[in-house]
């Protein structure tokens, strides 16, 4: 693990989800939405004028590995059915190489449901070597969106030496047909998709959280919510 005083941060414009937020946060979101709408209008104008899509340049990811705060973990990873206020994706990763000659690469990433999400940023910034043979394990606060599922499926099809296992705290908008199809395609591409059980939350707490002398006890409905999501995932993948 890298410096305990640093952490990996991925900041982007927020992807909206229905949720209750404080008044000031609401104002900030409205401002950001206005900026997004302006960017979309400029993008459409470029497309009309030039007859093709003109991408908008986005700022680079800031890559700093480190330890997650206990608050982030307890709030963002809680496996509730409705993720009100949880507008980030937290991704804890472990990369193991054959032979075990080197210590596993470990850390975490976060985003704000941006145009480019933590899942995509991982392969762009943390593991860009397409020829590297490795086993990648993720513990994520929310399962991939449609776009990320498609990109991950493509990466797995291209990187034959890569094996990916994703443990999800919650299923993101699992009721939407396109989300379900994206998760199915991801599994068909070779990804192992699992829900996080109580022992997995404890593992993340021990391996990725700046806990100091704090101990972790799974919340009261942790097992119940795990059972709920396991059933939903099984229905999606059957």
From TrEMBL:
Pfam families: APOBEC2 (PF18772). Keywords: Hydrolase, Metal-binding. Residues 16-35 have a biased composition (Basic and acidic residues). It comes from the Eukaryota. Residues 1-54 are annotated as: Disordered. Its cofactor is Zn(2+). GO terms for molecular function: cytidine deaminase activity; metal ion binding; RNA binding. Residues 85-185 form the CMP/dCMP-type deaminase domain. Coiled coil: none annotated. One of its GO terms (cellular component) is nucleus. Belongs to the cytidine and deoxycytidylate deaminase family. PANTHER family: C-U-EDITING ENZYME APOBEC-2, MRNA EDITING ENZYME. This is Apolipoprotein B mRNA editing enzyme, catalytic polypeptide-like 2b.
């Amino acid at each position: 693990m890298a410096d305990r005083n640093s952490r990996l941060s991925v900041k982007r414009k927020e992807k909206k989800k229905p949720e209750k937020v404080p008044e000031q946060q609401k104002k900030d979101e409205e401002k950001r939405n206005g900026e997004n709408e302006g960017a979309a209008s400029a993008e459409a104008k470029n497309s009309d004028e030039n007859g093709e899509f003109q991408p908008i340049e986005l700022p680079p990811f800031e890559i700093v590995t480190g330890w997650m705060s206990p608050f982030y973990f307890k709030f963002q990873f809680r496996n509730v059915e409705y993720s009100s206020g949880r507008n980030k994706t937290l991704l804890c990763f472990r990369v193991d190489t054959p032979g075990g000659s080197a210590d596993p690469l470990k850390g975490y990433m976060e985003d704000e449901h941006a145009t480019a999400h933590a899942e995509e940023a991982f392969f762009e910034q943390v593991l860009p070597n397409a020829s590297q043979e490795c086993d990648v394990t993720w513990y994520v606060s929310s399962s991939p969106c449609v776009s990320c599922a498609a990109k991950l499926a493509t990466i797995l099809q291209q990187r034959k030496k890569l094996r990916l296992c994703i443990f999800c705290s919650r299923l993101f908008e699992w009721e939407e047909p396109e989300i379900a199809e994206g998760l199915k395609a991801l599994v068909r591409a070779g990804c192992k998709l699992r829900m996080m059980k109580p022992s997995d939350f404890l593992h993340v707490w021990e391996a990725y959280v700046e806990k100091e002398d704090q101990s972790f006890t799974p919340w009261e409905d942790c097992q119940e919510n795990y059972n709920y999501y396991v059933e939903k995932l099984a229905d999606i993948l059957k």
